[in-house]
Structure formats: C-alpha cells, structure tokens
Write a structure and sequence with these properties.
Elements: H1 2-13, H2 19-28, H3 33-43, H4 48-60, H5 62-78, H6 81-96, H7 99-103, H8 105-114, H9 122-132, H10 136-159, H11 162-165
Helix pairs in contact: 1-3, 2-3, 2-4, 3-4, 3-10, 4-10, 5-9, 8-9, 8-10, 9-10
Length: 166
C-alpha cells in the first residue's frame, strides 16, 4: 500500500510542486511517513543525501504534537457522537500494537518506529507512547532513533545502493 500511495503522490504532485516539497509533505502523512517520503524521493530522482534530512524533518514534525496533545484531543472527541466511536477504534487499534512496546519501553518503541512494517512508524509509535503514558524524555529519543533506523532501511530499499554509498 505504501508503494502505491507513494507512486500516486510522485505522479500527481511531482510536476505541480518541487520534488523536495512533495517528499516533505509525504513524510508528514500518517501511514506513509518517512518510508513513503524516501520512496517518492527515489521516484522523483531526488538525490538520497538531499532527501534524507527533508524526510526526517517531515517525519519528526508531528511527533511532539501527538505526544503532547493527542490524549486531550481524543478525550474531547470521545464526548461527541460524531467522533467518539472513531477515536475508540483508533485507540483500540493502536493499543493492540502496544504489546511489543510495553515489554521494553525504550527498545520496544525504537524498534516499533524503526522497522518498516505496516502500521508502524513515528505516528503510531507516538500515539502508543502517549496512550501508555511513556514519559517524553524516554519516548522522544526512542522515536528519533527509530526514525533513523527506518531511514537507513528505507534508503537501502528505495535507492538500492548500499554497496555503492556506504
């Protein structure tokens, strides 16, 4: 699904705005995040070393907002008929993935964010950390390290040049 969405963004936005802006925006979107941003960067022929900081920054921007505000926003949304069920379902889905994180908070969160599997990443990791009440001083470094792990993995996948560059 990430590849399909990344291709859509590359095809539909790549000629309407700068490639750097496209990969920055894609890196901020849940589900796609940095993983999708690096795929789009590769598809738009953006140099890997140019794409890496853009994608990392784009992926990091939502993290503090999620960690600091999501529980308050969810509490308010749960009180409404329109959003109450959706928020409960989102929480249930996120907490269903939390077992790996709960066992070893820091390492679990870092690996959850860093290993590019469906439903993982900085957005979900931040949501789970907030819902579990993991302290920000532990969650933020774990999420940032996870983003760096995902960057390395996705550069290899997206650019396929492990032996040539590193």
């Amino acid at each position: 699904m990430t590849n399909t969405l990344a291709q859509w963004f590359a095809q539909n936005l790549g000629d309407k705005m700068s490639a750097e802006l496209v990969i920055f925006l894609v890196s901020m979107i849940p589900i796609l995040e940095l993983r999708g941003g690096l795929i789009v960067a590769s598809l738009l022929h953006v140099d890997m070393w140019t794409a890496i900081p853009i994608c990392i920054i784009g992926n990091i921007i939502p993290v503090p907002f999620i960690l600091l505000l999501i529980t308050k926003i969810f509490a308010a949304m749960k009180k409404t008929k329109l959003f109450g069920g959706m928020v409960t379902a989102l929480e249930r889905r996120a907490m269903g993935k939390s077992e790996r994180i709960q066992k070893g908070e820091f390492i679990g969160l870092m690996l959850f964010v860093g290993i590019p599997l469906p439903g993982t990443g900085a957005w979900t990791g931040s949501l789970i950390a907030a819902l579990l009440g993991i302290k920000n001083r532990k969650a933020v470094p774990a999420i940032l390290l996870g983003i760096l792990i995902a960057t390395v993995i996705m550069c290899v996948v997206s650019y396929g040049i492990l032996g040539q560059v590193w």
